[in-house]
Amino acid sequence: xxxxxxxxxxxxxxxxxxxxxxxxxxxxxxxxxxxxxxxxxxxxxxxxxxxxxxxxxxxxxxxxxxxxxxxxxxxxxxxxxxxxxxxxxxxxxxxxxxxxxxxxxxxxxxxxxxxxxxxxxxxxxxxxxxxxxxxxxxxxxxxxxxxxxxxxxxxxxxxxxxxxxxxxxxxxxxxxxxxxxxxxxxxxxxxxxxxxxxxxxxxxxxxxxxxxxxxxxxxxxxxxxxxxxxxxxxxxxxxxxxxxxxxxxxxxxxxxxxxxxxxxxx
Length: 266
Prior knowledge:
Blueprint (H helix, E strand, L loop, with lengths): L11 H13 L6 E4 L16 H12 L2 E5 L23 E4 L12 E4 L1 H8 L15 H16 L2 H22 L3 E7 L2 E6 L7 H11 L5 E4 L8 E5 L7 H23 L2
Parallel strand pairs: 1-2, 2-3
Antiparallel strand pairs: 3-4, 5-6, 6-8, 7-8
């Protein structure tokens, strides 16, 4: 949207926040909420270095809460405990879900900073919120088991290491397929964006090709051109072994070849 790229810019994407704050008035803004690495709505778009540092500075300066949505990116998916850790920034609140139970039971959680909990403690001392199935024993047990397995098997460290390998191989696939405009991401949250925005339905067609080969891909939209674009997410499980990665890459390469062949013949 800004037609600039890091490091040859002054982070206009971050400075835009201050323009909005001044336009609307900080007294009318409660919080800035973001997904640290944009998932399905952006195809694993990774903000540039220092982006979130500047966002946090602006939020602190104007008294606005900084909230991060780590439902998709948290619990080690990007090779760190939370995706925001890649920028060394501490938000005021973190929303968690999905990966907490590895999909075995529905569960979500909110992590708050000391600053936030102090306000509650010095006030009523009570959090006046709840749900019918809050603290459900089955979900809590699943989440505790997942945390235990992640820690004992050092899965987050392995995701970081294998994620680097996966990204290197995805970049090779990009070079081999003109239809691919960009690959990006961190850890086991990688995005493939098509370069030809005139063609519609490419994401769905690639997913169908991959599925026929035994590979599951996740649809993504709203690419790096801000308003349009199509792509897919490659988000393997934490248990991925080298032989599994080889199969994944082989089938992805084959699916892209099949799609390109279809496009040649209209």
